[in-house]
Design goal:
By secondary structure, the protein is α/β, with parallel strands linked by helices. It has 5 helices and 5 strands; from the N terminus they run E-E-H-E-H-E-H-E-H-H.
C-alpha cells in the first residue's frame, strides 16, 4: 500500500498523503528528492512520524549548510490542506522549529494555500491537477494491495 506521493511543479512540490503515515521507504524517497522548495501538502489525515519529522529537520539543515545555499533567498513555506485536527497539531510542533513557515487550510481553501505559498497563477492549474493525479495514484495503489508494485511516479 502506498501512503505518500509527490511531484514537482515549477519551483514547488506537491505532496499527497492518504490517512496513514508514510512508510519509512516512502519517506526516504521523499527526502532524496526534496531540495528546499515550498510545498503544498494535501492529506486525508496522514502525517510524518516523529522520527520522519526529525529526519526532515536534518535534511533542511543539510540543505542550508550546502555551498549552493543562498542565505538571503526567500525561505520555503509549507501549506497543508487538511480537515484533520491531528495534522494541525503536527504543524504546530513544526512551527516551533521553523518560525511560522507552516500554515494549514481546510480542504475547500486550496487557492488560499497556493496564494500563501506565493505560487504564480500560471502554476495554479498544474498544482491542482497534480493533487488530483497523486490522489488517484494513492487510491489505485490501495486497491492493488501491498503485493503489487506501482509504476514509478518520478
Amino acid at each position: 500500500m502506498k501512503n505518500l506521493a509527490f511531484q514537482k511543479v515549477g519551483d514547488y512540490f506537491v505532496l499527497v498523503h492518504n490517512a496513514m503515515a508514510p512508510t519509512e521507504e516512502e519517506w526516504d524517497e521523499w527526502m532524496l528528492h526534496y531540495t528546499y522548495e515550498s510545498i503544498l501538502i494535501v492529506t486525508d489525515g496522514g502525517a510524518p512520524t516523529a522520527s520522519q519529522r526529525k529526519r526532515l529537520k536534518m535534511r533542511v539543515d543539510e540543505l542550508r549548510a550546502s555551498p549552493s545555499y543562498v542565505p538571503n533567498k526567500k525561505e520555503p513555506k509549507v501549506a497543508t490542506v487538511t480537515a484533520s485536527s491531528f495534522v494541525r497539531g503536527v504543524l504546530t510542533a513544526l512551527r516551533w522549529f521553523y518560525h511560522d513557515a507552516y500554515a494549514a487550510f481546510p480542504p475547500d481553501h486550496i487557492n488560499q494555500a497556493l496564494m500563501y505559498l506565493d505560487v504564480p497563477p500560471r502554476y495554479h492549474i498544474a498544482m491542482r491537477t497534480a493533487v488530483q493525479t497523486l490522489r488517484m495514484q494513492l487510491k489505485k495503489a490501495k486497491g492493488a494491495g501491498p503485493s503489487k508494485t506501482m509504476p514509478d511516479e518520478g
